[in-house]
Amino acid sequence: MIDLNWLRYRFRWAYVLLLLVVFLHTMYLVLYNNQLIILGIIAVYPGILYISVIRKSELDDKEPRGLIALHIAMGILIIPIAFILEISGLRLLLLGDITPNSSILFIQYIFWFIYSYFIVAICEEGLKLIAFLLLNKIHKENDSPTDSIVYTVAISGGFAIFENYKYARSAASFSLEFGYLTAIVRTFTAIPVHIGLGMIMGYFFSKYLFFDKLGNQNKDKNYYRKLAIIVPIIIHGSYDFLVNILYGNQYYADLIIAVLFSLILNFFAWKYVIKLRKSSYIISSL
After folding, report:
1. What is the pLDDT of residue 85?
2. DSSP letters of 77-145?
3. What is the pTM of this model?
4. Of 196, 161, 185, the residue nearest 247 (C-alpha)
5. Which positions ≥6 away from 230 have C-beta within 8 Å?
6. Ranked by mean pLDDT, which of 19-28, 99-108, 169-178 comes out on top?
């Protein structure tokens, strides 16, 4: 069996490695195009800020920065896997003559429904949970109710950060102003949605881990573990479905719905965080 103790006690190296990657990429941008540095900051900083806020919301000992960096890196690493799975699912969907360009509106809705819920949402939220479970087996820092939220948010945040940067760079290939606009819009839409989904996933998984103290004893313990994946999939699929059916045709309505969706999602997600903070305080006082 592989000895993974070095991951348990040397998380600071993950933190240093992440900083080194950021530094090298910054140097590349300096040599290539100084304006892209500003674009990168606009695209990346909001995600880092969201993760920092969640970490600082803990009442007890804060989670190690290196371990959080490791979770952020894992969130970035699962993006290529998600991309491959989503492209494969899209190709299978198109084989069935279900396309977003169909002249029949109902077929368009069917396409976006299947694509949003059964391809994108399942792939992305499923990979986030798998990444969290893998890392959760390696370390022993997940020892209070709010810890699961910090780690799932770090994974979701890593995913959102790289995704935002990717979209911003792609948009900047048309014009730098379009790149800035894309990064700023996603700061108030896609990024907080990913963060909110991470909070909800962490909340239900924490109810599973601390079932004896937090869970409803009339329910099975695995009930909360199932909710940790089912609820984020449903919410993620709903967001993508609403955004996709309006995109291109009703841009401003699409933008308003996306912003409202992220606000409502994070309002309820933060209620879960506050609830777990109180539970964490009660448990630590026992």
Report:
1. 96
2. HHHHHHHHHHHHHHHHHHHTT--TT-SSHHHHHHHHHIIIIIIIIHHHHHHHHHHHHHHHHH-----ST
3. 0.85
4. 185
5. none
6. 169-178
